[in-house]
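User: What would this chain look like folded?
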Amino acid sequence: MHWYLVDCKTDRSVRSGRGSTMGTRNANELRAVTGGTHQPDAETVARFVSAWLDTTPGDERPSLHDALQAFAELVSRWRDADVDVDRAQAALLEGATEIASRYGLAVGELLSDVSRLVATSGRRNDLKQVATDRRILDAAYDVFADKGFYNATVDEIAQEAGVGKGTVYRHFDSKDNLFQAVVREKLLDLVAQVREGFETADDVLQGIRRAVSAYLRFFEKHNRFYRILVFEQQGFGTEFRTEYIAGILQNVPQIRDMVISAAEEGITKPLDDFYTIFYGIVGFMDGVIHKWFYNNCEGSLEDEIDTIIEVLFYGFVARKGNGGT
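Assistant: Here's the prediction, encoded as structure tokens.
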């Protein structure tokens, strides 16, 4: 059976911005958050971008394009002030993570676009190049999700993006590199949501529950990404599955610290190998998602949270010695 025969409800979303004309802003407010700043930090980044977005005319929620325009303006001002933007990239990305959370934007896409902006000259006119990258990435996501990596063609991606085939290759060296860029963006979104679950938790058990909920919600919303990630196991799937698990651990180090502390305090059982347990938990959740996917995505994955938590926390054997050894 080919994976694309499973016809789940699509997660194809409408991607729209309000265009390149952003209207008049409160110049004094914007000047106040950037005036004389030669040692940029994430707080300054978030303040400037928020000021830009919050003074945008209209009541619509800011789009990804709106946020990127704000970052382009800030980077351009820094360049004019001889700020080393390359060294400030970490602050820009940390600020972008905050902005994505604050305004409900896709963190993976925003981080990717900001990184691409810095990689160019970082001027306002570089937005066109980054915008073309975004059109290609969005189109590639749709085509890869519908057809899989091996059956998708660059011609189809170019047609979906409304650009020439040569433009795709100018922005991304190969179909392989384009595929990797698409997957890594979504992995950034997943890691960010799991991280938020743990960072807002009062204790390890609450953190695990919130992380499980975030994990399931993510794949329910992005079920087409699940197709890409899991059903390409013979190629990139295994590599990226390992990468996203490692990415969660790397970006959410408090998971390990909280779990080990809980074991030391007697809240959980002693751990022989934290990493074996963590990979086992992720594998368990992947199995639940896999079952849901092959049942045509019926119901909500969040309905499975109580069962997952019950098994993770307490197991499924009623008592010791009942049929076991």
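The two ends are 39 Å apart (CA to CA). If you want, I can go into more detail on any region.
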